[in-house]
Amino acid sequence: MTVLLFSCEDYPGKNENNLFEVSFQVDPEIYGLTDWAEPPQFALWLENRTTREIKTIFVTHRTAKDDWEGKASCPVALPFWVSKFKQEYTRERGPSFMHPVPDAYTGATPKSDFNQKFGISDGDWHCYLEVNVSGDYNDLYKRYFPEEWVHDYGNGQPSIVYRSKDIVSNEVTRPFVVIGQTRQVQATGPLLDTVRITSAHNLLKNLVLKKM
Question: Which of 96, 158, 164, 167 is in the most buried spot, having the most CB atoms within 10 Å?
Fold first, then answer.
């Protein structure tokens, strides 16, 4: 299978049968209320349900390089994508400063609008997005735990995972649906439901995948 990725400014795509664009807006009124008031980390990737191929489309640069200079290290920022990264690159560990995600698939964390174009071959492709913002604590996901234990990673509400199914179809626009959340202080484990997620549900606006 072939997955071709393009920047939004330079988009050839003349030889691809299936061309797509993922777009959304990050709401500054939501992440501005967190302890650090910084925009979220997120990753966008494809999975082929027949071949099991995984291809990262985009991931924010701090997670892509495990570079948290000036910040607390956050191995639980995007743990679900990291597990997919390990499969994609056949590695035991996630990305690191010495072995980062290739620059072509990374970029600065957008403060508002985001869009990414890509082309893929025919197949049973699903598109996934995982998003997480630090310091968005709520009544369940607290900074301070029993016995005065402090959560050093600064992760409040865990990351949320969205999916757009069967994107190679005749439909012009495909929705993204929340399929679960990760855990606040664990970098592994199956996805959980999102009944205790509050403000994190509103981080992204107008999240959509369009066939071009």
Answer: 158
Judged by DSSP in three states, 85 sits in helix
What are the structure tokens assigned to 89, written together?
């690159």
- Residues 26 and 168: their CA atoms lie apart, in Å, by 26
Residue with tokens 């072939």: 2
At residue 29, what are phi and psi to the nearest 5 degrees?
Answer: -70, -25
Tokens for 168?
């190679």
In this structure, the number of other CB atoms found within 10 A of the CB of residue 1 comes to 13
41, two tokens: 């980390």
Tell me the sheet residues that pair with 24.
114
Span 49-101, pLDDT tens digits: 999 999 999 999 989 988 877 665 677 899 999 999 999 999 888 898 888 89
End-to-end Cα, the chain, rounded Å:
20
SS3 150: strand
| DSSP one-letter string for 28-52 | HHHHTTSSS--PPEEEEEEEETTT-
Q: Quick: pLDDT tens for 12-27.
A: 333 356 899 999 999 9
